[in-house]
Amino acid sequence: MANIFVRYCHNSIFRRNAVTLPKYDFTPKPYTGPSLQRTDEIKANHIPPAVYNIYRKPLVLHQGRMQWLFDHEGRRYLDLFGGIVTVSVGHCHPKVTAALHDQINTLWHTTNIYRHPKIYEYVEKLISKFPADLKTVYLVNSGTEANDLAILLARAFTGHEDVISLQSCYHGYSSTIMALTASQAYRMPLSVPAGFHHAILPDPYRGIWGGCRDSLSQIAGSCSCVGDCVTSEKYVHQLSELVDNSIPAGRVAALFAESVQGVNGTVQFTRGYLKQAAELIRSKGGLFVADEVQTGFGRTGDAFWGFEKHDVVPDIVTMAKGIGNGFPMAAVVTRKEIAEAHTRAAYFNTFGGNPMAATVGKAVLEVIEEENLQQNCKDTGKYFIEQLMQLQKQYPVIGDVRGKGLMLGIELVEPCTKKPLDRSDVTDIMESIKDLGVLIGRGGRWSNVLRIKPPMCINKMDVNYAISVLDQSLKDYLQNKI
C-alpha cells in the first residue's frame, strides 16, 4: 500500500499535466487557515475517528465558485460531487449569496412560533412545484430529520406501525433512521426500533431478474420493454410476499423509496416498479413516501421531482441537500389531512424555516428557474452519460454506467465480470482522478461505484474535461496493474 501511495504521489504532477484544465476567470483568496499537518493533528486528537478521509492525501478546501473548488495551495478542482449532492446551483452562487447577506443584516432567527415574511414567501414558492394535494409543508433541518418526521406522520395518520424500505437504501443516520436505512455500512451493531422491513431491491444490474430502466444506458442483453418492465411484476410480487408474511394484515404504515438510490451508487429501479409498489402498499393500508433528498430540484432533468418520471404521486415527500445549496435545511411536503393527524400533540421546530433558511431556499428555486438548470441537467446529463458509455466500451473495468440527468454512476468491476473491483483499486483510481483535478463521489454496497452528482451549472466543456480525466485515470490504473 505504501509503495502504491509513493508511486501515485510521484506521478501526480505528470498526470495533472496530461489533461488540460478548462479556463476559468477567478482568483481565490490567499489561504490563511491551519496547515495540512496541523489539521492532521487536530483531527487525530479532536475529530471523531468515524469521520474518515476520502483520499489518502487529504484535501484542504477553502473556497468555492460555482462548479469549482480551490484547495489551500490554490489548486482548482472540478466538483463532480457537490458536497454529497448538496450544492445544486453552484458554490457561492452570487444571487443566493446576496440574498443571504441581505437577510443576515435584517433578521437571523425568531422560530416559527412567530410569523416572519420569508417563510410564507418560500412555502408558497415551494408548493407551486408540487402536483395534486401535496400542499402542506414542514420546514426542518436535515434529510435524516425529514425522514424521521415522515415516519411519524405516516404512523399517526394510518394508525399502523410497520414501515418498509428497499435493500441497500440510505435514508439518513440516527438511532431510528438507522432501522430504515438498509445498508450494512451504516448499521451499527446495536438494536434498532422494531417495525422496519427491507424489501428486495429491483436492481436491473444485480437483481435476480435483471430488467430495464429509465436511462440511455441499459445492461447488455437486458430486456427492452415498451412501458413497464416485465420484471417489475416479479419484484413487486416479492414485496407482496414480505407484506403478507411479516406484517399484520392491513397494518402497513408506509413504503419509503428514493426515486434513484443515491448512496447505493445511483441504482435505478426496473421501469414501472415504483408505481406498482405504491399501489400495492396503499391497498394494504399504507402510504408511499418519496425520498427526494438527492433526486429533487430538477437534478434528473426530465422532471423537477424524481417521482414524476415513475408516474406516481406520493403521499409524503421528503427533501434536503440541494434544497439549500449547502445551507442546512430540509422539508417534508404532504397532504393536509395527513398533517392534521399530527395535531394530537404539540409540535414546533426551533430552527426549521428560520429567516435565513427560507431566504436561501427561495433564492435557490429562483435560480433553478432563471438559469434553466433543470434543462441543463437534461441536456448536459445526456451528453455526459453518452461519453461515459463510450468509455465503458474501452475499459472492461467499467461494469455498468447508469442514471439520468446529472445523477450518474459508474460501477467498477473486475474486468469482464460483475465481481466488485477491490476497494484499494477503487481508491487508487479515485486518488488519480483527484490528482488530475476532479473531485468525484464514491458509493455502492461494495464502495465500488463512482458517483457523479455535480452542481447543476456544469457545462459540456466541463464534461469533456471530466471524461479526459477518467480516461487517463483508468488508463494509468490498467497500466499499473500489468
Describe the structure.
The protein is an alpha/beta fold. Helix content is 37%, strand content 15%. It has 14 helices and 15 strands. The strands form three sheets. The chain has a seven-stranded mixed β-sheet, sandwiched between helices. The longest helix is centred in the last third of the chain and has 22 residues, at 373-394. It is globular and about 60 Å long. The two termini are 17 Å apart.
What are the defining features of this structure?
482 residues; alpha/beta; 4-stranded mixed beta sheet; 15 strands; 15% strand; globular; disordered N terminus
- Share of residues in helices: 25-40%
- Class from helix and strand fractions: alpha/beta
Span between N and C termini? 17 Å
**Number of helical segments?**
14
The rounded Rg comes to 22 Å
Shape summary: globular
Strand content: 5-15%
Helix and strand element order: HHEEEHHHEHEHEHEHEEEHHHEEHEEEH
> Based on DSSP secondary structure assignment, what is the total number of beta strands?
15
Contiguous runs where pLDDT drops below 50 for at least 5 residues = 1-10
Strand order of the largest sheet: 4-10-9-8-7-5-6
Major sheet: size, sense and barrel closure? 7 strands, mixed
Mean pLDDT: 94
Describe this structure in a few short sentences.
Helix content is 37%, strand content 15%. It is α/β, with parallel strands linked by helices. The longest helix has 22 residues, at 373-394.
Secondary-structure topology with pairs:
Elements: H1 2-16, H2 36-46, E1 61-65, E2 68-71, E3 76-79, H3 82-85, H4 94-104, H5 117-127, E4 136-140, H6 143-158, E5 162-166, H7 177-180, E6 196-199, H8 232-246, E7 252-258, H9 273-283, E8 287-291, E9 316-319, E10 330-334, H10 336-340, H11 355-370, H12 373-394, E11 398-404, E12 407-412, H13 423-435, E13 438-439, E14 441-443, E15 449-452, H14 460-481
Parallel strand pairs: 3-13, 5-6, 5-7, 7-8, 8-9
Antiparallel strand pairs: 1-2, 2-3, 4-10, 9-10, 11-12, 12-15, 14-15
